[in-house]
Amino acid sequence: MCRWLAYSGEPLRASAVLLDATHSLVAQSLDSPMGAETVNGDGFGVGWYPEGAVAGSIPAVFHSVEPAWNDENVRELSRSIESPLFFSHVRAAAGPPIQRTNCHPFRWENWLFMHNGFLAEFAKVKRDLTFAIDPSLYPHVTGTTDSEVLFHLAITHGLADDPVAALTAAVDQVERVGRDQGVLFPMQGTIAVTDGATIWALRYSSQGRSRTLFHSRDVPTIREMYPEAERLSQFGDHAQLVVSEPLNDLPGLFIEVPESTIAILDREGYHHEPFRSAA
């Protein structure tokens, strides 16, 4: 469906992972061997928090409907952005049209959200799920994707207070409504959401066959594994990545997130929590 990455750590020039890595996100937009679709050419997006931003700062976003590998603005922008936390996403459209408002990441206040996957048979459940969004949030739904509806359901269920509980409630609602409409496996995908300080990365599907998701090992360990790899020098000791698929050819740098798991990344590193839908 799509490919995405999330970075957190010392301020990093975005081009290091969007362009320059062996299997960068832009490279994955054209050739994604672990993806459901090899080519992800239906739009690109990046959202970032400026260096030195205080808690609660509003992130900047850029969206383009051009294929990432063919968009000069993507290259110019990624070489200019230096940020301690950024999201980026390349899209393979699965029904909703190719338009800027359908590109990820989505933004609400100080939050960013992106998704790889789908809500199965979305046409059957779209009305019920859209009407379940808090009325005050409804005007902020500007696109037509199932992902944006899912994001606003999570906000409705209290994302700002308890992201894990809100994601659980949103997925439960998707599964409940889907099964009421005869959809066998309503939810599929990986999700990343951040408030600008912590990243929550979810791997879950109703069928138990979720899209791939990985996160990096800590940089000091990676340097011990590959002391001669000069390309690692641009990353600080707290640099961390969450990715749809690994960005390089160095074995062992990325750890697969288990099925039905939410990986939580903060300044102390990662910890995993089991993710279960109550539906």
From TrEMBL:
<dbReference type="InterPro" id="IPR026869">
    <property type="entry name" value="EgtC-like"/>
</dbReference>
<dbReference type="InterPro" id="IPR029055">
    <property type="entry name" value="Ntn_hydrolases_N"/>
</dbReference>
<keyword id="KW-0315">Glutamine amidotransferase</keyword>
<protein>
    <submittedName>
        <fullName>Class II glutamine amidotransferase</fullName>
    </submittedName>
</protein>
<dbReference type="InterPro" id="IPR052373">
    <property type="entry name" value="Gamma-glu_amide_hydrolase"/>
</dbReference>
<feature type="domain" description="Glutamine amidotransferase type-2">
    <location>
        <begin position="2"/>
        <end position="268"/>
    </location>
</feature>
<dbReference type="InterPro" id="IPR017932">
    <property type="entry name" value="GATase_2_dom"/>
</dbReference>
<dbReference type="Pfam" id="PF13230">
    <property type="entry name" value="GATase_4"/>
</dbReference>
